[in-house]
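Entry 12.
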Amino acid sequence: MLRAATLSPARAAVTLLLAGWGALTAHGAERDDAELPRLRVVQGASDRPGTSAWLVAHDPWLAWGRGRDLFRRSFSARDGAGEPLAVPRLADGRTAALRLGPVTSCALCHERAGGDGGSGPVIPKNGPSGRRTPHLRGAGLIEQLAGGIRSALLATVDRDGDGMVSAAEAAGVRAIVATGVGAQVSYGRFDDADGDGRPDLDPQLHVWYLDLDHHRVPGARRLDDPGVAGFDFALQAFGWGETPGVAHGLSLRSLVVGAFMIHAGIQAEDPALAAEPRHDGWAATPPSGAAQVHLGTPADCGLRRDAGGFSLDDPDGDGVCAELTAGDLDLIEHYLLNLPAPAERRAQPGVEAGRAHFAALGCAACHVPDWELRGRDRRFAALTVAEDSAGALVAQLESPTCGGTLRVAGLYSDLASHDLGPAFHQVQFDGSVVTRFRTPPLWGVGSCAPYGHDGASLDLDAVIRRHGGEAADSAARYRCAPIAQRQEVLAFLGALVLYGLDGLPCRGADGDGAFAAPRWFAHPPGPGVPAAQAWGAALQWLRDADGDGFPDACYAQ
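Predicted 3D structure (tokens):
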């Protein structure tokens, strides 16, 4: 059995990410023509140069660049890529939800705006009309907002502060969160008013059941199942929300693990997600500090390990072990956590009037513009992008807001699910019908045609007119509005854009407050600087002299 693929030497022209939210290429190199050699990253400790913990603590730009490489690289069969080990099933328990061959790179679908978590094609998922690939810009803010919403909801119902919602606490309590900027969002209610045995919460809230000792009750699906004394919950941060109970979108880390396994056939070995230290439905917390719901036993449990500590499990029997390490996950998570949010071209004609019309038509009731909740921003860098006097997009790089308030501006989503009527319903492969979908954040929508979960609407006007059900009144007001107002609404939505990170002018990247050529790393390369030095390949725990894809330090005697 192969421990790992032996990779060929890196090409002479190696991509060098530089500072600012952009990248310059190495001397004479083209960005897409080369990539780092595949190297399994060790999670390790923050005092070991080159481990994921050390990179995030001491050189977060380099950690971001290496996480970016893992997100954008094309994995091969030598890396473990291939047919998925497990494909999600639909409600009948038999029909596969995904009819798509192996996808060997995240950037193949998230390909717009330079492949940095952009939107992408409609794929054959769940039903014949498929699913449009959403973008991941601002994903770190969304993950943290979902956690803040969960905390705010729990504070309204958990009167004894034990972290569990009991039947007595849930009785008559509605699940409502104040956005902090003058609006409220409803996520249903905590009790079981309809008598179906489950809390009447929005399907975007993933629920699991606990006993009197606050331990998760295995297999419990209802409040009246044996041993159930209450429940806990978390808000699903990502996805279209069409499949309640499929919970890999609860955090960036679980999203990455699920996507690599389902789409690329690559299994991740992560002690944090595998553990459930308190048996209460929560996994161990990874170095990023993001709370993780325990989603069951992972495919790669690391039951057998080699001399370097890497997993020798081979769940899919393809002869490749340690396909994705906990250190790799740390860096991809760090990359996604710090992906900047989309921009708004406020100087474009009609944008300000269109934003006002958008609210007046009632669209902002679900597409909630801004949030301000208690919480700490875990990003290491905050980037805002706006137009300069010439209409070009430029960036401002700052430290995240300190203190106990998490601010998310320009999201345009309540992160809840809604029934928008028959025009949005979807018949799935197994014949079941999905009627509710999560409100997609509208930031970036001007760059993400086609529209709808299925990509069936080719322009913004068409997708607005398509709204019915809970949004029927707003859609009717839009259709009846004067042409000039409708055009201003479309101008506003069209101004919510994605942008390429490569070469984006950035103020604050080099510390002098001036716009300059972006520089990514704390080790800026230039003519004559070896690519390996820029990528930190000489660091003890990133050194791979024998080219076997594993750090030499792991096997040093």
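Annotation: The first strand starts at residue 122 and ends at 123. The CA atoms of residues 42 and 190 lie 42 Å apart.
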